[in-house]
Each structure stands twice: as C-alpha cells, then as structure tokens.
Amino acid sequence: MIQRINPLDDADWDALIKTCPSASFFHGAAWARVLHYTYGFSPSYFLVRDRGCLHSLLPVMGVKSWLTGRRGISLPFTDECAPLCPDGDSLRRLFAAAIAHGRASAWKYLEIRGGRPLFENAVTSTSFLGHRLDLGADEATLFGRVDSSVRRAVRKAEQCGVTVEFSQDLAALRAFYGLVGTTRKRHGIPPQPWNFFANIHRHVMAAGQGWVVLARHQGVPVAGAVFLHFQKTAIYKYGASDDAYQHLRANNLVMWQAIKRYAREGCAVLDFGRTSLSNDGLRRFKLGWGTTEHPIEYVKYDLQSNGFVTAPDEAAGWHNHVFRHLPAFLSRAAGRLLYRHIA
C-alpha cells in the first residue's frame, strides 16, 4: 500500500530510511527540515513499506510561488536525489500517486533529480556530471591517486602556513558565509539567504550530520566548504574562497583534510555533487582528486501536456552578468527574494 507522509511528523523517519542501503543524506529528515523551515516547502513523501522496512520511496517537496507557479520537486536544492526503488514497476506506482497528488495541488510539473533509467522511455530533461571518490584506501594510496598538480597545491598550502579546522559552530558557519558572498558574486550568482545556512546549522550540524571546514591564513578565513554525511557517504555540498588568497591553494587543503578525516572515520564514498556539462574547470577540479565520473539525469513531467519534457541547464546565462555587477547588499537581497521561487 502506498503511503503519503510528512517525514517531519515521523520521529522514526531516519531509522526507516537506514533500512535502505542506497538512501542518502537528502532522503533524511534533516534536509526536509532545512527546506521546510527556510523556504516553506511542503514535504509529501510517497513510500511503500515491507515488513517494517522501506521498500520504495519517492520524496517530493511541493513548491508554491506567485512568481514561478506551483510544482513538485524531488528534491529542491539537491544535486541528485534518486527515487529509492528496486525496479521500474515500483517507481511507476509511486510516480502515479505523486502525479495524482500534483493534480489536486495544481502543480505545473513534477521534476525528479536522478534515477532516470528507472523511467525506461522517459526523455532526460537536464543532464549533469557527478563525481564520487572511493575512500576505501589508506591515506598514502588516496594521496597517490590525485593529480600531481593537486598534490603540489596541497603541499603549497601547508608550506604557506594555511591551517584547517573542522567545526559545527555557528560562528564558523558565519565565517564561511562571508566567503560565500564573495564567491557567488564572482560567479554571477546571488548568495543563499543566511537563514538557509542557519537552518543547516540547526537541523544538520547540531545533529552531527555535517561539518564546516574552514581554512585560515594568519587567522583570516580564506577558503571553506560545507560537508554533509549520512551512514557511509559524505557529500561535498558547498565551497567558497577569497580570490585574493587563491595563490595559497587553501581550497585544495580543505578538500584533502576532509578526504582524510572521512576516510579515517570509516566513510566509504565522498560525493562531489553535480557539475554542469559546460563547466570544464569544475569538472577538472573534481577529476583531479581521483574521482569516478557518472551521468546525473533529471526527468520532468508536465502535468498540462501529460508527458515528459526537456529543460535547459540554467546555471549560465545573462543573469550571471547582472549579479556579477550588483552591489553586495542588493545581491543578498536578491538571494533572499529569489531562492524560494527558483527551488
């Protein structure tokens, strides 16, 4: 029997998804809380249980926006969140239930971020590249697998006196957020609202499911990253740096220290997230760590035309030029306004 539940109302939700080996951090309650309490998205998770265990799951967030309309997304602001289904038939039943709910909720479409092969004949709406690093080796082997240029960058950061700290404190996350503003301005993207990161601290880091890793040079924050983790998988979710200190290669040291720590603590995989097909520089950075590359394919079902449709990757466009030249306070204001609408 298919159930539709809100994981925020289920105290045993994470225990349930742990019964499914392929479940990721994004299927858990912490991410649902971050999205709900930051942006007001409504969780509707469709699932089937089998003798107390999770048999199949399609997590969906309902987005209501006066600017971009109503739709369902599985899940907003995730790079990849594939349905947890053993086969295509299981997914079809959950998908039909989600579509029926979407029609009753006046959704324009339902987007699924991952798991495209389970949909058989569905067209891919948008394609990305994913990168994963196998952590099942000793430190020397892991370091030997990275490109020589990456090893040189790590050593340079160490020789320049860059220090790295792991923290779950709000003050460290605020320091990282300062780097986010400058980094996203450089890329022509508004920063996420501070409340989003405050909710990551409240619902993720305070629960021991994430780290902010901060590099400092002479006490000044120069680079950092936010990592999330669940069971045996860690996720590199956000990175930022001060371009004025780029010569120190602090971002490379941040990554290497995270790799070492997660490997030491028994994590099996570090997921580097998605990369746009056109972003060759970011792709090379991720491949440089010895990762394995794989496709990430989204599907998008239009409820008005009753069919799967394609969608462009909107990571790059005219908007980048606009946000690159906005004053910082206007860029932050744009982030507070827009993110709940773009999802």
Q: Any overview of this molecule?
A:
With 343 residues, this protein is of the alpha+beta class. It folds into two domains: 3-121, 3-Layer(aba) Sandwich (Aminopeptidase); 130-294, Aminopeptidase, CATH 3.40.630.30. It has helices spanning 13-17, 29-39, 88-104, 139-145, 148-159, 170-187, 194-205, 250-264, 280-287, 318-324, 328-342; strands at residues 3-5, 42-50, 53-63, 71-74, 109-113, 126-134, 163-167, 210-217, 220-230, 233-241, 269-276, 292-302, 307-309. Strands 1, 2, 3, 4, 5, 6, 7, 8, 9, 10, 11, 12 and 13 form a 13-stranded mixed sheet that branches. Helix 2 (29-39) runs antiparallel to helix 7 and helix 5 crosses helix 8 (250-264). The longest helix is centred in the middle third of the chain and has 18 residues, at 170-187. It is globular, with a radius of gyration of 20 Å. The model has no long low-confidence stretch (mean pLDDT 94).
